[in-house]
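Most newcomers find our protein records easier to grasp once they have seen one. Each record describes a single protein and holds just a pair of labelled lines. A learned vocabulary of local backbone shapes supplies the integers on the structure line. Nothing more is needed to start thinking about how sequence determines fold. The record below serves as our worked example for the rest of this section.
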Amino acid sequence: MDTRASASDVSTSNLQRHADADRGDGSSIERAANLIMDLWIHWCRERRIGQATRSLALLDDHTLRDLGIPNRSEIEFTVRFCLDC
């Protein structure tokens, strides 16, 4: 199972749920399901960030600089917040 595809599918349904929640309809069971789904999305994102961070940490310093990461201490920051990489 491809986690990236399933996470994007989940995030699309997440947007729809939030739109539904803004209208005020939904039971406590639905709100609990939404909370669980949000936690799942967060866990999937953190897992992907950890995988990318570990992969980049295996590279040598010269290759990291070529990728635009000047210091090893900035690997996780770059993975988390670099939107145009």
Notes: Residues 10 and 40 are 9 Å apart (CA to CA). Residues 1-8 have pLDDT under 50 and may be disordered.
